[in-house]
Specification:
By secondary structure, this protein is an alpha/beta fold. The chain is 28% helix and 22% strand. The protein contains eight helices and 14 strands. The chain has an eight-stranded mixed sheet, with helices on both faces. A two-stranded antiparallel sheet has the order 3-4. α1 packs across α2. The chain starts with 7 loop residues before the first helix and ends with a helix.
């Protein structure tokens, strides 16, 4: 009999994939966002259009890409255009429904840091940097963010603001005339957080099965707001687990062969 027990990362990836609706045009980041977006494409959202920063539109990779320059993306795309067109026509033109991003740090208003940990001039860790994330965060119709939840990543104050979420909260995005609605959900290995409709502060709306509220609160670097209608995330289905594991196994084999 198959073993349908699952890991925290599998729960996070599957919960994130469920956020993508069929037919959406999604600007995808590498790593956890790419895994979740491709899982959605292979399960409930076969019509999702995956757009990557390198200029690929409608990519349908058989294995997860190592980077935005992975040939798998271009080989399986409906079209490949310039990065200038991706950003000016598709993203700034309002043609991206969802931006799917990862982060190293996030704050209570879903602003994210992917630049440095520590002082900018003498950082403890230098991260991959901004790439297209600031523009994706600014211009996508809405943004989904996925990362593991602990006090190193969920911080009171970011070491560097790479991409704006809801800025200082409230009407901060509107005041800067940012075209997109900003982060709609943050999906972690512990639960799902969504911005308060008025203040835009992240609020815990769902916990994954088996997770205690105390653990979520302890993993957050600020006093976390909790919804009065706190739900439990539906556990992964057999199909979701099977498709995700097959995707990851194919990816591991392909990357080992290419190494």
């Amino acid at each position: 009999m198959p073993d349908w027990t699952y890991t925290a990362d599998e729960m996070m990836t599957i919960a994130a994939s469920r956020m993508l609706r069929n037919g959406a045009v999604c600007f995808v980041g590498i790593g956890l966002p790419s895994a979740a977006a491709n899982l959605a494409r292979l399960t409930h959202a076969p019509g999702v259009v995956l757009v990557y920063e390198s200029g690929t539109i409608g990519s349908k990779p058989d294995v997860l890409p190592l980077s935005i320059g992975d040939g798998e993306l271009a080989e399986t795309a409906d079209a490949v255009v310039s990065s200038v067109e991706i950003f000016s026509y598709w993203l700034q033109g309002g043609r991206i429904d969802v931006g799917f991003l990862g982060a190293a740090q996030i704050d209570r208003f879903a602003n994210i840091n992917t630049t440095v940990i520590g002082d900018y001039n003498s950082p403890t860790v230098r991260l991959p940097g901004a790439g297209g994330a600031p523009e994706i965060a600014a211009s996508s119709g809405e943004v989904l963010i996925t990362l593991r939840q602990n006090k190193r990543s969920f911080v009171e104050r970011l070491d560097f603001v790479t991409s704006g979420g809801h800025l200082s909260g409230g009407s901060g995005r509107e005041q800067l005339r940012l075209p997109g609605r900003g982060p709609a959900a943050v999906i972690t290995d512990l639960g799902i957080l969504m911005p308060d409709p008025a203040t835009k502060e992240l609020t815990l709306t769902s916990m994954h099965p088996g997770i205690l509220l105390e653990r979520v609160l302890e993993a957050t670097g600020w006093p976390l707001k909790v919804s009065s209608h706190l739900e439990t995330t539906a556990p992964p289905s057999a199909e979701e687990l099977s498709v995700l594991r097959n995707l990851q196994e194919r990816t591991a084999r392909a990357h080992a062969r290419d190494a």
